[in-house]
Amino acid sequence: MASFAAPAETRPSRAPQPRPARRPPTRPQPRPRTRVRARPRVAGGVAWIVVVAALLAGIVALNVAVLGLNMQVERLDAQRDELVSGNDTLSSELSAAAAAGRIEKLARSKLGLVAPTDTTYLELRSGRRAR
Question: Residue 28: inside a domain, yes or no?
């Protein structure tokens, strides 16, 4: 098999063009940076400081309130101890005043009563007759 190829097209040749004159090398210009907008860090920091200060103030106020309550509890404990000792004193006085020997002695000395020598029993009749 024979193949036929078309003749190659020829391009007209170009004449070499003169090179432009070289410029002296210059320093590359830095690209202008786009300024990134700074976040307001100061305002955020101040806000956190205020929040932390408020929390600390709350803790201090809570501790002061607990201290006041503890002092009140101590006063109430002391008052309770005084009342308990007063109740004990009154209880012993009451038992001494209600003692049978003391009452008998007072009955003999102040009222002139004497101890019975003999015991007598009386039988009471009821309105009905016993069958």
Answer: no
DSSP states along the chain: -----PPPP-PPPPPPPPPPPPPPP-PPPPPPPPPPPPP-HHHHHHHHHHHHHHHHHHHHHHHHHHHHHHHHHHHHHHHHHHHHHHHHHHHHHHHHHT-HHHHHHHHHHHH-----SS-----PPPSSPP-
Residue 80 domain-assigned (yes or no) = yes
Query: Contact at 8 Å (CB) between 96 and 102?
Result: yes
Domain of residue 90, residue span: 43-111
Give a yes or no: residue 55 inside a domain: yes
pLDDT per residue over 6-31, tens digit each? Answer: 666 777 677 777 777 777 777 777 77
Here the tokens at position 4 are 């036929």
Residue 14 placed within a domain: no
pTM for the model: 0.44
